[in-house]
Each structure stands twice: as C-alpha cells, then as structure tokens.
Specification:
Radius of gyration: 16 Å
Binding site for a divalent metal cation: 34, 36, 67, 180
InterPro entries: Aldolase_TIM, Ribul_P_3_epim, Ribul_P_3_epim-like, RibuloseP-bd_barrel
Strand content: 15-25%
Shape: globular
Catalytic activity: D-ribulose 5-phosphate = D-xylulose 5-phosphate
Number of helices: 8
Helix content: 25-40%
GO molecular function: D-ribulose-phosphate 3-epimerase activity; metal ion binding
Low-confidence stretches: none
Strand order of the largest sheet: 1-8-7-6-5-4-3-2
Bound molecules: D-xylitol-5-phosphate, zinc ion
CATH topology: TIM Barrel
Number of domains: 1
Keywords: Calvin cycle, Carbohydrate metabolism, Cobalt, Isomerase, Manganese, Metal-binding, Zinc
C-alpha cells in the first residue's frame, strides 16, 4: 500500500450535484474529500459552510479534509467538528491565538493542521509541531481553483519535509505534508519527490469526465517516485 493520499477538492465539482460528486470521486479512489471553506473576507471568494458539510457527511465514507480560508477561525472550527470534519486546517494569519485554535481542533477529536500561503514562512510551524497532524502548503494563492502551480513551492516542500522528518525521528509522531493548488497528473511525481505525501486536486479531477482514470494516472505517476 502506498502512503500517498489524494484529496479531491470539491470546489471544482458540480455544486448542483454535490452528494453524487462526493460518492463518485470516492468510488474513483479518493482517500479524503477536500472541502474549501471561503468567507469573502480572508479570501476574495465565497463557498460553503458547515451545513453543506453536514449534508455531505453521509456520502463521505472517507475523512472530510476541511480547509478553512476564513477569519476568525475558532467558531467555525467548532461548527465543522460538529458537521463531521475529520481534519481541520486553517491559516495562522487568520487566528489571533494559533496554539489555542490548534488545541481546540484536537479537543474536538479532529486532526489539526496549519496552512501556509506561498509567502508565509515555515517558521510559524516551529513552536507548534506537537499540536499538528498535518501541514498544508499552498502552491497557489488561496481563493480560486484552476490556478497554476507556483514552482517555488518545491523548495518549501523540501524545507518542511526536512523539518518534519527531524521531528518524527525525535518524537515518533508522523505529521502529514499536503500540497494544494495546481496539482496535476503532469507534476504530481515531482511534488511527491520533493516530500509531499497528500495531494489536493480540484480542476485536474473534476474537470475531466472520468475521475477514476485521472486518479489512476496520478497513482501511476506516484508509484514511480
Ligand atoms: C484554493 C483551494 C484549492 C483549490 C485547488 O484556494 O484551496 O483547494 O480548490 O484547485 P486546483 O486543483 O484546481 O488548483
Ligand atoms: Zn484547499
């Protein structure tokens, strides 16, 4: 079994048929369902909230990977935990007390993660590694699907990989490293080679008629890393 996980972003799914889209992409091999929450405040776009997450929960037989692009975060963390989130990640710039928000996620029995924008330094991770189950590196500026992968992210993935490997050697705790934005069949192998193990893909999967074929091609690429 490969340790790589694919997390299709339903931001690019057909919003009029979301339950069916979630079922179909899981049948096609999704390991997680990436749920992009945008508030038209932290990012210039507006998507869906906890009620939609709750409604999709019966269709989601894999964990829901909630990516909060909202400010502030604490109230919505509670709502999404109640709505069935498995993983909740947020941007450190959007919380006044990052350590407290991470603890809150953990207390609600969800996995916790921080999301770093392209210009955010990896130093924000240093003092909270014990609280993290996942680091999510943005390879586009958050707010929209269908943007191009920012190549500089590869350098950052290597940097965070080294940090997480060192932490795992000391603590025995594994922290997942997820990459979000512009991930395609063509570049997934190079992103994995840099050190990522979890891959968000929105337009690359939902933009094609055959989800199983795309996820299969991604796994084929990953098997060669
Ligand atoms: C962007 C979102 C991404 C987005 C990825 O703010 O966080 O999850 O849906 O979409 P693609 O894969 O199309 O770049
Ligand atoms: Zn996302």
């Amino acid at each position: 079994m490969s340790h790589y996980r694919i997390s299709p972003s339903i931001l690019s799914a057909d919003f009029a048929r979301l339950g069916e889209e979630v079922s179909n992409v899981i049948a096609a091999g999704a390991d997680l369902i990436h749920f992009d929450v945008m508030d038209n405040h932290y990012v210039p776009n507006l998507t869906f909230g906890p009620m939609i997450c709750s409604a999709l929960k019966p269709y989601a037989t894999v964990p829901i990977d909630v990516h909060l692009m909202v400010e502030p975060v604490d109230d919505l963390i509670q709502s999404f935990a109640k709505a069935g989130a498995g993983i909740i990640t947020f941007h450190p710039e959007a919380s006044k007390h990052v350590d407290r928000s991470l603890s809150l996620i953990c207390d609600l029995s969800c996995q916790a993660g921080l999301v770093l924008n392209p210009a955010t330094s990896v130093s924000v991770l240093e003092n909270v590694l014990d609280r993290l189950d996942m680091v999510l590196l943005m390879s586009v500026n958050p707010g929209f699907g269908g943007q191009s992968f920012i190549q500089q992210t590869l350098v950052k993935i290597r940097q965070v990989r080294a940090m997480l490997d060192e932490y795992e050697a000391q603590s025995g705790r594994h922290i997942a490293l997820e990459v979000d934005g512009g991930v395609k069949v063509d570049n997934i192998a190079e992103i994995a080679a840099a050190g990522a193990d979890t891959f968000v893909a929105g337009s690359a999967i939902f933009g094609k008629p055959d989800y199983k074929a795309v996820i299969g091609q991604m796994r084929e690429e990953l098997s060669r890393v």
